[in-house]
Amino acid sequence: ALLKTLEEPPPYVKFILATTDPQKLPATILSRCLRFSLKNMTPERVVEHLTHVLGVENVPFEDDALWLLGRAADGSMRDAMSLTDQAIAFGEGKVMAADVRAMLGTLDHGQVFDVLTALLEGDAREVLEAVRHLAEQGPDWNGVLSEILNVLHRVAIAQALPEGVDNGHGDRDRVLALAQALPAEDVQFYYQMGLIGRRDLPLAPDPRGGFEMVLLRMLAFRPADSEDAPRQPL
């Protein structure tokens, strides 16, 4: 009956079918439709829209909180609006970064930069202190290492092509600053050590200890030439 209706609809009827799983629709249905595949929205677009909506509604917010929501929405404005409603309720009428992190259970992205800054300075004490602060959140250490690798990847892009760095995490300026301060060979070395560390982390007797060992290896075996190279302050 549906096929017949689609083939010969009344002149006053227009069918609009929406789905997130088009592969589950029968081929007989798809063949009778004009298909439009909508792209995911970028975090920048999501944050821009949330800024407008919260401004109109006079809801206080922090920019960092909107970037957290923009990334968590994974390209869906509908999910972004739903998460924002939850954040307003969670924050008792405000959308604050600390509340959104607690609601989503996400890592403070700034702490990833703290770890990388300590590596840049070659200071083992600061590295372990940064790990101690991370441990207070009870993180997934494999996930933390993955976040470090993501930042290093963007730093490498910034060193090769500065204009190629997006602001999808709201941290473009910090990435560019790291790209200026870290020697390129250090970035590549840390990335490789991080990949190996992710592979070996499940074998460590303690996840935090395994994570610390990855960072200490980065310090112990970093390229010798980079130890004496002048470093630009962040």
Which key phrases capture this entry?
Helicase, Ruva Protein, domain 3; 234 residues; Zinc Finger, Delta Prime, domain 3; 13 helices
Q: How much of the sequence is in beta strands? A: under 5%
CATH architecture of the largest domain: Up-down Bundle
Low-confidence stretches: none
The number of domains is 3
Number of discrete helical segments: 13
CATH topology of the largest domain: Zinc Finger, Delta Prime, domain 3
Q: For the record, what CATH class of the largest domain applies?
A: Mainly Alpha
Order of helices and strands: HHHHHHHHHHHHH
User: What would you report as the Rg, rounded to the nearest angstrom?
Assistant: 23 Å
Give the end-to-end Cα distance, rounded to a whole number of Å. Answer: 67 Å
Quick check: average pLDDT? 88
The count of strands amounts to 0
Task: Determine the structural class based on helices, strands and strand pairing.
Answer: mainly alpha
* Biggest sheet character: none
Outline: elongated
- Fraction of helical residues: 55-70%
What features would you describe in this structure?
This protein is an all-alpha fold and 234 residues long. It has 3 domains: 1-31, no CATH class; 43-104, Helicase, Ruva Protein, domain 3, CATH 1.10.8; 109-221, Zinc Finger, Delta Prime, domain 3. Helix content is 62%, strand content 0%. Helix 3 (43-56) crosses helix 4, helix 7 runs antiparallel to helix 8 (124-135) and helix 8 packs antiparallel against helix 12 (207-220). The protein is elongated and about 75 Å long.
